Structures are given as structure tokens and as C-alpha cells.
Amino acid sequence: MVVRLWKDGFTVNDEEFRSYSIPENQDFLDAIKRGELPAEWESRAEEEELEISVEDLTEENYVPRKKAFHPFSGRGYRLGRIADVQDFVARSQRSCPPFILTTSRPFRDLNDKELNLEEADLANAVIVQRPLNTQAPFGHS
């Protein structure tokens, strides 16, 4: 846990800026100064050992850091069969008109839902959802 002390407030682990003028924030800092664990960290400390460092930047004004880009922050799903992919796509949409899954170039309909992704030669492949009863893109079929 990294507590950075700025001219008019502090941050914990580069999260939201906390002003010194708010009583709860002052209680937090008073606990740190006494060498005690702040009340808001007590439940966390029961689960893991906390290492706390304090950086004195009180000569500087707080400037928000740019948020780190995380390209994927959602849950992961293990999709082993083409049927799993089909079900996942259908569940991910509010209203789901009939569709078919295809590969992108070369275009190939993925009809055999019992194959797993490896058996269907889809490892590292792009899978496209295409509404049923439409023309293949670019006039291919």
C-alpha cells in the first residue's frame, strides 16, 4: 500500500485523491502517523499481510496520473466447443435474431456445434457472427 502525501491531500495506491479537510481522511492519516492500521484496512489485513509505504510529496500539488490502459478487464470464459461460442454470443445480446458463426477469410460456416475449437481448426482464428439469410460479405459464399 503506497500512501502519497501531497500539499492539500493524499492518495492511496494512486486511487482517488483524498483531501486533508475531510474528517474521515484525517482519522486515516492519524492512524498511519501513530503506526497503527487505519480502520478501513482492518478487514483486508485479516486476509493478507499489508506492507505500507509513505511518500512525502507535501512540497507538490497533486496532479492526477493518467489511468493505465487495460485492454481487457472483464471476466474470462472458457469456450471449448463451437456450441459454447454460439451460446455465449446469444447470451451477450439483449435481443438475438438468428445468426450463424463463420470464419473470416476464407469464409466458412461453422455448422458442426459438437466440434471443439481445436478440432474445427479455430485456434487463433477470427470468428464472425453473421445474421442468417444475408449475403456473405464482399459477394463470397
Automatic annotation (TrEMBL):
Transmembrane segments: none annotated. InterPro entries: NSFL1C_SEP_dom_sf, SEP_domain, Ubiquitin-like_domsf. One of its GO terms (biological process) is nuclear membrane reassembly. It comes from the Eukaryota. PROSITE patterns: SEP. One of its GO terms (molecular function) is ubiquitin binding. GO terms for cellular component: cytosol; nucleus. Gene3D superfamilies: Phosphatidylinositol 3-kinase Catalytic Subunit, Chain A, domain 1 (3.10.20.90), SEP domain (3.30.420.210). Residues 1-63 form the SEP domain. This is UBX domain-containing protein 2A. It comes from Larimichthys crocea.
